[in-house]
Write a structure and sequence with these properties.
By secondary structure, the protein is mainly beta. It has a 16-stranded parallel β-sheet that branches. About 14% of the residues have low confidence. Strand 11 and strand 12 form a beta hairpin.
């Protein structure tokens, strides 16, 4: 499309752009430039939104020329009038060499060229699937309008304790203001602070939303202040701000309510006791298989996805999950199995998707996979989730995603009978390495997001594996398998698992609520609510902890001993029941030893059994005792 001359002999030509023709030659006439730009505009307008890529390559007439790492500020011709942002493109070192026989980008034979790179919307450059040079920020702040200069302020990140200032009364106990050029982060309290004279970029003001649209809820900061301070909210796309006044006053804080919320894309480094729930990790390694090729890509900031870039460019891309599922419903040529990949760690708010049906005619999609790309942690905040006409699935897979709701909401995917001759692995619902939770509330937490499955006539198989969920309900004939997971309804008195007419298999899991099932097979699990089993002549529960008053099938090594009259309760002590805590659901060191080492192999009961912490601890202590000098004592200090 264009070329930037960076090393021209004449000073007047340096830094000048040239529009290129299809043969990569500069166009010299004004009429030719306009025609070329019109042709390119037609291509862009006729393509799927988000399917275009910016490609960069270094060309030189000198052999072995090298372009050192640099940054190019990209801005449109109307950036100052339209309010567009300038994007800072971060280029790595590019070395020019002889091009191959068939060049991907035409060039004269005498020229030397470098491999081409693609540029993401945040200014990062990609070499295939590898980040060649990451961006330090999506927007390059624009300098004074008179000078036309483009200024970039990079803040150096450092750790600092930022205790809650609103609880400090004495003036001398106020924290010192953040030094200009720094971003202070308090990981323990989830706080950050930066200098008041270096405020964050102000969100652009856009036209007011149409009638009935969602009201804005992001507060921006302007005006001189000594220190701007915010609190990080997991799964949120904005921040709440506060400020501290220095002695003598004279500062101000002005709050502006823009008319549109700004979506923020972040990369997470998240602590956890084990990979349970949706975490920003490589799930392919854990599952031992490569993910299915994506047929639709959902991306907030334009990342192509987890597949090869060349293949992903041909995949339709959408801004929201709602748009992707709506496109499947409207597509008459949709596939029997559709795979929707959430490509980035964005928070998608205000989602109201519908399970795709037959709105576009043709055969309906019967197998649907909604998964996160490897290393991504997308959060989908739901206002509703309905079903379009003709929706019905033999298999649904939710993998690596976090689903949350602002209020009471039941997720009920429609299921139909699989074709005759299909195996159980090809039917049912699978929830793997995912989190189905609720949005935190400052005073009264809303009910957790519930998952309910209405089984078709031939039954349904629901598999929950290494996941964190709210209440689970299976209506009709079916089997619910919960493995290495945490089921949290919000309180031990609320229903966590209800399978009235089917079988529940609960293996190495922690259930923080009541269980009401027809048939139960349970092993090495922790139940903090009362368990009620209708058919006590089938099934078994072994090496598990239950509540006093539970009605169980055959038992083996269950605590407490229900045959003792009256049974003596065995309490369970957890480090945290806050889902955002890295130690969520983990047993404390002072938990009853019958629970902490009560599994069949001497490990702990519950969702973290496979980590084998008690077994490893005992092995380390034995080895330490062998090598401890006489007269000295060694031990282990656990840090929760």
């Amino acid at each position: 499309m264009g070329a930037l001359v960076v090393g021209a002999p004449a000073a007047a030509d340096r830094g000048r752009w040239h529009v290129l023709d299809a043969a990569a030659q500069p166009i010299t006439t004004a009429a030719g430039i306009l025609a070329r730009l019109a042709a390119l505009s037609a291509i862009v307008d006729g393509a799927q939104a988000g399917s275009q890529r910016l490609v960069v390559r270094f060309e030189a007439e000198t052999a072995a020329a090298v372009l050192p790492p640099c940054e190019v500020c990209w801005r449109g011709a109307t950036w100052r009038d339209s309010g567009d942002h300038a994007i800072l493109v971060h280029l790595p070192a590019l070395g020019a060499s002889a091009p191959p026989a068939v060049a991907s980008w035409p060039a004269p034979a005498a020229w030397q060229v470098s491999p081409h790179l693609t540029v993401a919307r945040d200014g990062s450059t990609w070499d295939g699937e590898v980040v060649a040079r990451a961006s330090a920020g999506r927007v390059a702040p624009i300098g004074p309008a008179d000078s036309g200069a483009v200024l970039l302020r990079r803040r150096q990140v450092r750790w600092r304790s930022l205790c809650p200032w609103q609880h400090e009364v004495a003036e001398h106990r106020k924290l010192e203001a953040t030094t200009p050029g720094f971003l202070d982060v308090d990981v323990e309290h989830g706080l950050f602070a930066f200098a008041g004279d270096e405020p964050p970029p102000i969100a652009p003001v856009v036209p007011p939303p149409a009638a009935g649209a969602r009201a804005p809820n992001l507060t921006c900061i302007t005006g001189p202040i000594s220190t701007v301070r915010g609190r990080l909210h997991p799964g949120d796309s904005g921040f709440n701000s506060e400020h501290s006044m220095p002695p003598g006053g004279g500062t101000s804080l002005e709050l502006i309510e823009p008319v549109q919320r700004v979506f923020v894309t972040v990369e997470y480094q998240q602590g956890a006791s084990a990979h349970i729930g949706a975490l920003p990790a490589e799930r392919s390694t854990i599952l031992g298989r490569r993910p299915e090729p994506a047929t639709r890509i959902v991306s907030r900031h334009g990342v192509a996805g987890g597949d090869a870039v060349s293949a992903a460019l041909a995949v339709p891309r959408y801004r929201t999950l709602t748009d992707a599922l709506a496109a499947i419903d409207a597509d008459a040529a949709r596939a029997e199995e559709e795979v929707v990949e959430l490509a980035d760690s964005a928070t998608y708010v205000g989602e109201a998707p519908a399970w795709p049906g037959t709105g576009g005619g043709g055969n309906a999609t019967r197998r649907l996979v909604i998964r996160a790309a490897d290393g991504a942690r997308p959060v989908v905040r739901l206002d509703a989730w309905t079903a379009a006409a003709g929706a019905g699935f033999t298999r649904i897979v939710l993998r690596g995603v976090t689903l949350a709701a602002n209020g009471a909401l039941t997720l009920a995917p429609p299921m139909v009978d699989p074709p005759s001759g299909s195996t159980p692995a090809q039917a049912g619902l699978e929830l793997t390495l995912s989190t189905i939770a609720t949005v935190p509330h400052p005073t009264t937490p809303p009910p957790p997001l519930a998952l309910a499955i209405a089984a078709p006539p031939r039954g349904v198989h629901v598999t929950i594996d290494r996941a964190i969920t709210g209440p689970l309900t299976v209506t009709g004939e079916g089997a619910l398998r919960v493995r290495r997971s945490i089921v949290d309804p919000g309180a031990s008195t609320l229903d966590a698992i209800v399978v009235a007419d089917g079988m529940a298999e609960i293996d190495r899991s922690t259930v923080l609520g009541a269980v009401d099932v027809g048939v139960l097979e349970a092993s090495e699990s922790i139940f903090l609510g009362v368990v009620t089993v209708t058919d006590r002549f089938r099934g078994c529960i072994r090496f598990s902890r239950v509540e006093v008053g539970s009605v169980l099938p055959r038992r083996h090594r269950v605590v407490p001993d229900l045959d003792v009259s009256p049974p003596v309760p065995v309490p369970v002590r957890l480090v945290s029941i806050d889902r955002h805590d890295p130690a969520y659901g983990r047993l404390t060191e002072t938990c009853d030893v019958r629970v902490r080492t009560g599994a069949a192999d001497g490990a702990e009961m519950g969702a973290f059994h496979d980590e084998l912490w008690p077994v490893r601890r005992e092995a380390v202590l034995r080895r330490l005792s062998e090598y401890t000098p006489a007269g000295m004592v060694t031990g282990l200090i656990r840090m929760d």
